[in-house]
Design brief:
180 residues; alpha+beta; Nuclear Transport Factor 2, Chain: A; 4-stranded antiparallel sheet; 3-stranded antiparallel sheet; 5 helices; 7 strands; 27% strand
Length: 180
């Protein structure tokens, strides 16, 4: 089974668009974003990649969000990822519940970095990414058998929202039938 690490947990644990018409539209720079909290002297990987660069575009935010998401899967620490999500993002909440359940039961997730092949803005405002996903695996508890994913290429759909000077994830999903 091929699935993106972004949805690895939510698809597998929870048992759980439309294509075409994409057009690559360059994102212009966004207003400067300044974090509201100071970073520790030795920031964690999650904290470092959760800090927005100045003038971050929507496409840059999506790339950063994917990195933070993968790190959250590896560690079970959702703090940085939660700070990037809109409170109403239901797909984000489902993902967080699944990761929390796995780590609370002594389980673990092994996910490598996803390679973003392209990001295109669809006319409806959503962003479609073509992603190369490495093999990954997880287990729901310390004694559970590993569930493995072979990796592959698929398309994810992201809806991001502007909140003040910052971007936030509002929704994400896998384009049905896009896995290769």
């Amino acid at each position: 089974m091929r699935r993106s690490p972004l949805l690895l947990v939510s698809l597998a644990i929870l048992l759980t668009g439309c294509g075409g018409g994409t057009q690559d539209i360059a994102d212009g720079p966004s207003p400067a974003a300044s974090p509201t909290t100071s970073m520790p002297a030795t920031p964690s990987t999650s904290a470092t990649i959760a800090t927005p660069p100045a003038h971050e575009s929507a496409k840059q935010f999506i790339r950063r969000w994917i990195q933070v998401n993968t790190e959250a899967q590896r560690t079970g620490d959702l703090t940085a990822l939660d700070s990037l999500n809109e409170p109403g993002c239901e797909s984000c909440k489902s993902f967080a519940r699944a990761v929390t359940r796995i780590y609370a039961a002594g389980g673990t997730i092994e996910a490598a970095d996803t390679e973003i092949l392209s990001i295109a803005r669809h006319p409806d405002g959503q962003y479609y990414t073509r992603e190369r996903v490495p093999p990954s695996r997880y287990r729901e508890s310390a004694r559970a058998k590993w569930t493995k994913f072979t990796g592959g290429t698929d398309t994810q759909i992201y809806l991001v929202a502007r909140v003040g000077d910052l971007w936030r994830m509002a929704k994400y999903s896998e384009l049905a039938g896009s896995a290769e």
